[in-house]
Amino acid sequence: MTRHGKRSLAALAALIAVSGCTAQAGDADGKQPPLTRIDGTAGSTPAPRPTATPDDPKPSATPSKTPVAAPEVLWSKGDEGTDVREVQARLRQVAWLFDGPTGTYDDLTATAVQGFQGKRGLPRTGALDTVTWQRLQKMTQEPGKWELYAFGGQPAAEPDSRCMTGRVLCVSKTSRTLRWMIDGRTVSTMEVRFGSQYTPTREGVFSVYFKSRYHVSTLYDSSMPYAMFFSGGQAVHFSSDFAARGYFGASHGCVNVRDEGKIAELFAQVRTGDKVVVYW
After folding, report:
1. Which of 5, 56, 83, 201 could form a disulfide with 194 if both were Cys (CB 3.0 to 4.6 A apart)?
2. How far is CA 239 from the centre of its chain?
3. Phi and psi at residue 96, in whole multiples of 5°?
4. 199 and 253 in contact (C-beta within 8 Å)?
5. Are the C-beta atoms of 143 and 90 separated by less than 8 Å?
6. How confident is the model over 72-119, as pLDDT tens digits?
7. Which runs of consecutive H residues, i.e. helices, occur in 21-98?
8. 3-state secondary structure of 102
9. How many other β-carbons are positioned within 10 Å of the β-carbon of residue 75?
10. CA separation for the pair 232, 212 (Å, rounded)
11. What pTM was estimated for this model as a whole?
């Protein structure tokens, strides 16, 4: 190789070293192999390319949450029936409702359900859903017949055969109702309450012998409005206690009526001598 050639090779080697490349030795024919690019300084080996391992976190889309279905609503405002009466009776057992049962899912019932739900960490919807109903059932017992009708509303029993003729106050102890009947036709019905076991209401066929619109009992010093006497001191009359407490009480033997409007109309129609039948 000439001196000029040697100088050229030396210059080329210096240029390669500065540019970050390395020169490969020539082959037997003196041919130069292709240059190889090296990241880093001259003479260093290429760094391995990082690869993901099974333990490396992998980006993923945010998992979608399956919406939880709201519990089924069984009863809500406006519903009516014996099922609603049971709900109200059970709410009374746990002191969340004090009126009724009425058989109508009203504002008072919705407020009571809201309170019951909130006390137990349930959504305060005021509607009786399956979850609320199960919780209420676990905390109460099945109400008896007269718990369902603690404030009246029960259907009247079939009239006694002795009520089918004439003008009759037909009083059933079985259904706790009074039918006002004329010649076998029912003119009106109303809920009634009777005496306790110590002061029972007499049974049998009687007649109205005295009427007193503003009567006051001299024996018990209590008001007896719209009194219609039929047996001794026993009478059909309005009772404010019955109106307030329902069947959580009893009379001293009289037939109490809780609806003042109905007893006022009845009092206006009944005559002295009209028949009274009290039966089971």
Report:
1. 201
2. 33
3. -100, -10
4. yes
5. yes
6. 999 999 999 999 999 999 999 999 999 889 999 999 999 999 999 999
7. 82-93
8. coil
9. 21
10. 14
11. 0.70
